[in-house]
From TrEMBL:
Pathway: Porphyrin-containing compound metabolism; protoporphyrin-IX biosynthesis; coproporphyrinogen-III from 5-aminolevulinate: step 2/4. It comes from Psittacicella gerlachiana. This is Hydroxymethylbilane synthase. InterPro entries: HemC, Porphobilin_deaminase_N, Porphobilinogen_deaminase_C_sf. It comes from the Bacteria. One of its GO terms (biological process) is protoporphyrinogen IX biosynthetic process. One of its GO terms (cellular component) is cytoplasm. Its cofactor is dipyrromethane.
Length: 404
């Protein structure tokens, strides 16, 4: 028998990770770097960071909808991939355009928090948006958050607030800036460990405040033209891939970018109608995947990616422990919340949809059958939103944006 080369006897290749330079972006890139270091399939790679500046970090004076939304935070990182200066790029999925260029695709990571938060300045007597006095000023740059504020809190005004998370918090606590509250993503504040020190109100999809498609998920962007793309599946979380396909699918069909005030959130609900925490399902599923990856990689030639991947996927599907775990889960349906509104709350669509989901499907989420089911579910949602007046909202919104 041919002697298998040992991982540590091979020459290691650099795996360059393109990232933005904000504290949040760097935290996320380090998370992916640590993950890669811990995965047996990447034993031949040395991950290192390439911090970069994006257009979105420079143009800080306009609403996101007006600066374009087409890859504002991703363009420069994609250029580095194309030039092969980097092998992967790490993004907040929320910032990733709905229609990627043909040569790119994404893998997804755990989603701990999907919600938005209202954050109040230090020492503020208020802890809920509803309690703020009429005319109070709330900072945001997102048209989705503006439309939600107009819909649920018509007594409040909004004022443009741009910059990365750290900058926005500094502006909130500077009385000269005049903000009574700002809206931020829970995920970003949790990652930067700011949550403990802040006075916040959680705004959740279950209460109608629907988060952005993909919010809270860290995505890795891969370039089909680079060899390392063959390893992408080892880094993927199929649970979040499934839910994300629904959220981003709806947004894509509605022509969504950040210029549309659209919220879409998909999650699992059990037979009692309660939400099942996705991060618990995916972390457990990923723990099984890691065990399989260890076994497969210790007995194989790491350069034989194709075979490695096949063995990995097959063993994972037939793993008794994963089957058992899947059967213990009560995932009765996938529930999707959608919000579309305009900036003056003249017209709003707020709907909930559900897709029946089998107990065992968690074992293999990548079947063509499930994919087809998801596609037709997305088509049904989009059709319903159009029947409910989506087109009129879009026209209204375009007028409002033009007047601004
Ligand atoms: N556009 C900025 C951005 N992109 C992703 C996040 C938060 C992290 C996430 O959603 O994963 C933020 C900050 C915010 O909206 O408060």
């Amino acid at each position: 028998m041919r002697e298998q080369p040992k991982p540590n006897s091979m020459k290691k290749q650099n795996l360059v990770i393109a990232t933005r330079q904000s504290a949040l972006a760097l935290w996320q890139a380090h998370m992916i770097q640590d993950l890669i270091k811990s995965l047996p399939a990447f034993a031949n790679f040395t991950p290192e960071l390439l911090p970069m500046v994006s257009t979105g970090d420079i143009k800080l004076d306009t609403v996101l909808a007006k600066v374009g939304g087409k890859g504002l935070f991703t363009y420069e990182l994609e250029q580095a991939l194309k030039a092969q200066q980097a092998q992967i790029a790490v993004h907040s999925l929320k910032d990733v355009p709905m229609i990627p260029e043909e040569q790119f695709f994404y893998t997804y990571n755990a989603r701990h928090y999907h919600e938005d938060l209202a954050v109040f300045p230090q020492g503020s007597p208020y802890q809920r948006l509803a309690d703020l006095p009429a005319g109070s000023v709330v900072g945001t740059a997102s048209v989705r958050r503006k439309a939600l504020l107009a819909h649920f809190y018509p007594h409040l005004q909004t004022k443009l607030l741009r910059g990365n998370v750290n900058t926005r918090l500094a502006k909130l606590n500077d009385p000269e800036q005049g903000y009574d509250a700002i809206i931020l993503a829970r995920a970003g504040l949790a990652r930067l460990e700011f949550l403990e020190q802040l006075q916040v109100e959680i705004l959740s999809p279950q209460n109608g405040w629907v988060s952005a498609p993909g919010q809270g998920i860290v995505a890795v962007q891969w370039d089909k033209n680079q060899k390392v793309a063959a390893y992408s599946e080892f880094l993927n979380d199929p649970v979040n891939q499934l839910l994300t396909d629904i959220e981003r699918g709806v947004a894509r069909h509605l022509g969504g970018s950040c210029s549309l005030p659209l919220g879409v959130y998909a999650g699992f609900v059990n037979s009692q109608g309660q939400e099942v925490a996705t991060n618990i399902i995916s972390s457990q599923r990923n723990a099984f995947a890691l065990e399989v990856q260890k076994q497969v990689c210790s007995s194989a030639d790491l350069e034989q990616t194709e075979q490695l991947l096949q063995a990995y996927q097959q063993q994972l599907k037939s793993l008794p422990a994963l089957q058992e775990f899947a059967q213990s889960l009560d995932l009765a349906q996938i529930q999707v919340q959608v919000f579309v509104g305009d900036l003056q709350a003249q017209k709003t669509i707020s709907r909930s949809y559900s897709l029946p989901f089998g107990k065992h499907s968690i074992v293999d989420l990548q079947t063509p059958e499930l994919q087809a089911q998801v596609d037709s579910f997305v088509a049904t949602i989009v059709q319903d939103l159009q029947d409910q007046g989506f087109k009129e909202i879009k026209t209204l919104l375009d007028q409002q944006l033009a007047e601004q």
